[in-house]
Amino acid sequence: MISRQDVEHVARLARLALTDAEKERMEAELSSILEYIDKLRALDVEGVEPTSHAVPLVNVMRDDEVRPCLPAGAMLANAPDRAGDSVRVPRIIED
Amino acid sequence: MGGLSKPPKPPALGAPRQSRGAPRRPASFNGYRRGDFTPEDTARAHLERIERLDARVAAYLTVTADHARRAARASAERYRSGRPLGPLDGVPVALKDVLCTAGVTSTCGSRILERFVPPYDATVVARLHAAGAVMLGKANMDEFAMGSSTEHSAFKPTRNPWDLARVPGGSSGGSAAAVGGRLATVALGTDTGGSIRQPAAFCGVVGVKPTYGRVSRYGLIAFASSLDQVGPLSRDVTDAAATLSVIAGTDPLDATSVDTAVGDYVAALGDDVTGLTIGVPGEYFAAGIDPEVERAVRDAIAVLEGLGVKAERVSLPATEYGIAVYYIIAPAEASSNLARYDGVKYGLRVPGKDLIEMSSQTRAAGFGAEVKRRVMLGTYSLSAGYHDAYYGRAQKVRTLVKRDFDSVFGRVDLIVAPTTPNVAFRHGEKADPLAMYLNDVFTVPASLAGLPALSVPCGFTRAGLPIGLQLIGRAFDESTLFRLAYAYEQATDWHTRRPELP
């Protein structure tokens, strides 16, 4: 039901580098889970509204004003690599 | 009740009933106030038990002993001067490692956050500190709260205090084992599809999943944002009610926390339950349920009837689709939430020649097998060409699940059912992912509908493993849940039994 090609495509979308063994297992496991989930096809949901969450809330507004926040240093303390007040990442712009 | 089952004999009454009208308070609070013992005694005793037993139980990932001693000393001082902060002052608590704790490593059970030290407290953690609770440490869990056994922790599997060869349930397995094993008085867990109620049932403790929106999720590391809720696990209903009273309530830092009155859940305990109507859904007693679990739950219903509660047979026909809906919606939300673990701002980074390679290698090294499986499943069901067939359809069936409850709650005050179809299973017993998922069959529907639900101990199997009774209530009506659970607890003595930990 799920092909090796599907697994590789979805892994790329999900930014997951999978080993060949993982791909093989994923193919079998996802197929079996999706086969179970296919029981939903038996239901008639014509005209049923979707539920995205169960709370009676729509938009929650607040005043647009500056409030105190954590200092940059505290937020950067967990960064794997940093330069001054920035996080450092591999070059993303080509020459 | 009429025709549902032969009325069984109620179990022997054990614990003395608390006299009606007396103000109910957590046992620790009463003891501290009378001066029978101090918060420092309690903290010391718990730390000593953790030191002695947790190598075997593995309930904790981090023990904050120094913090606990300091907090207990401050609490003892408040009692000495006659000014405790409230019923939770001096209560030793374990916090699931999915909750951010300022300055204390919060791993979420994952290698990708192994060295993550949050710069702030989750709102629920800040509220517990402000109420004087004493943090003992951070509790083990399935990685990113994905699992039903705590075997998916990246660090170690937690063991069930009633039988160390068995799982404590999950994902809040560390929290449940800590409370069940007397390694904490109260714990916070989180419940997305049953992750508080199922481990509570497996470990013989009380576990409460509040209404979605009742408790702030700020500082709770997100799994499935439309389902996640924080709630208490405790040895008895009174402690759970006292804890929810402290952590509940709207929070400007979580726009999905609902601004609705929070009751004094402790004050409502002991109110009469005569005249309440409970619904007993036939779908929760279907084939596959352990006969010992069914027997215990039917006995519990008979006890409730003995207390003047009216039991009525009801039907929730969409129950059988709950797991399928859940395993589309929760992984879909997870795949989006977990996109943030890309090696850039915090957490693990595995270097790569460009950003995509860096992220892909970081996630490959940092996520365990179950997290990868769910991220893949969620990404697939949201991807072009499959979105409507899977995610869109699941959202519609979620509406059907919710409608079932809406229609039943027109007639009954509460729904009563087993928390789980089986008792705690052995480590390694559910190696097939789908078999593990099916264990959530009775807890997932209330999660999808956003309803409050709790599990309270209702017996033991012949092998001595705990069984949980699940109560599901109307949205934001936690008071009635607590009231009935308390009445049941007072009529039985299950909560007074303790595991014989070596």
Describe, in plain words, how this protein is organized in 3D.
The complex is a heterodimer of chains A (95) and B (502). Chain A is mainly alpha-helical and 95 residues long. Chain A has a domain at 4-42: Histone, subunit A. Helices cover 35% and strands 4% of the residues of chain A. Chain A has a two-stranded antiparallel ribbon with strand order 1-2. In chain A, helix 1 packs across helix 2 (20-37). Chain A starts with a helix and ends in an 8-residue tail after the last strand. By secondary structure, chain B is an alpha/beta fold. Chain B has one domain (27-323, 392-496): Amidase signature (AS) domain (Amidase signature (AS) enzymes). In chain B, 36% of the residues lie in helices and 12% in strands. An eleven-stranded mixed beta sheet of chain B has the order 1-3-2-4-6-5-10-11-9-7-8, with helices on both faces. In chain B, helix 2 runs antiparallel to helix 3 and helix 9 (322-337) packs across helix 12. In chain B, 61% of the residues are buried. At the A-B interface, helix 1 and helix 2 of A face helix 9, helix 10, helix 11, helix 12 and helix 13 of B.
Summary tags:
heterodimer; A: 95 residues; mainly alpha; Histone, subunit A; two-stranded antiparallel ribbon; 2 strands; flat; B: 502 residues; alpha/beta; Amidase signature (AS) enzymes; eleven-stranded mixed beta sheet; 15 helices; globular; disordered N terminus
Spatial order of the strands in the main sheet of chain A?
1-2
Strand content of chain A: under 5%
CATH fold-level label of chain B = Amidase signature (AS) enzymes
CATH architecture of the domain at 4-42 in chain A: Orthogonal Bundle
CATH level 1 class label of chain B: Alpha Beta
Oligomer type = heterodimer
Describe the global form of chain B.
globular
